[in-house]
Structures are given as C-alpha cells and as structure tokens.
Design brief:
- By secondary structure, this protein is mostly beta strands.
- The chain has a four-stranded antiparallel sheet with strand order 2-3-4-9, with no helix packed on it. The chain has a four-stranded antiparallel sheet with strand order 5-6-7-8, with no helix packed on it. The protein has a three-stranded antiparallel sheet with strand order 1-11-10, with no helix packed on it.
- The chain starts with a strand and ends with a strand.
- Strand 7 and strand 8 form a beta hairpin.
- 0% of the residues lie in helices and 48% in strands.
- The protein is built from no helices and eleven strands.
C-alpha cells in the first residue's frame, strides 16, 4: 500500500542540490532542480551503493561521489559509466512548503 511521507521542508534544499531522507531504515535522496521542481530517488547509487546525497548535482544530473557515475534524477536513468542500472524514482508533491514523497 502506498503512502505519502513528509520528507523535508522546501527551504531545506537549495536549487541544484540534494538532501538525504531516511524512513523506516530506507535511504532516499530529495532534489531541487534549477527550476524549483522537487524530485526523489533511491538514496544509493546502483553501482556500489554509495549515498547519493554526498554527490554533485548539475542541472538534472546527480553524480555519484565514488566513481562519478551519473543519473538523471528526474527519470532515474543511468546516464554514464560505470552505472548501468537505473535509479528508482518516487512521486513527489509539495504542500505548504513541505516536500512529500510517495512510498510503498
């Protein structure tokens, strides 16, 4: 069953940045695009499970801090070696300055 979880405040994330969020032992990454849209993905790189919140955000891309693999965080698509497996993405909504993600 799916449910919406409050992940953070919109002010917690600068444009072109990422913050970590953990719920029930699962890591997520919450992003704010240059256009002030919000996105959520799995919190770990699919290559060697590094936390993506420590990576570099450029445009709509997150770069893993370990081997520089890249993902399009808006779609989860693996966009550069060594990553070959896409990231899981999660629906996001913003209400009254709070970022919610749908998990389940």
């Amino acid at each position: 069953m799916s449910k919406w979880i409050a992940a953070c405040q919109t002010d917690d994330i600068d444009p072109e940045d990422v913050v970590p969020f953990q719920h029930e032992g699962v890591d997520y990454a919450i992003y704010r695009s240059p256009d002030d849209d919000f996105y959520a993905t799995a919190g770990h790189c699919t290559h060697e499970r590094m936390l993506l919140c420590d990576g570099l955000v450029m445009d709509n891309t997150i770069e893993c801090p370990k081997h520089n693999g890249r993902f399009d965080y808006t779609t989860g698509r693996a966009a550069g070696a060594p990553v070959l497996v896409d990231l899981r993405t999660y629906p996001v909504r913003v209400e009254d300055g709070i970022v919610f993600i749908e998990i389940g």
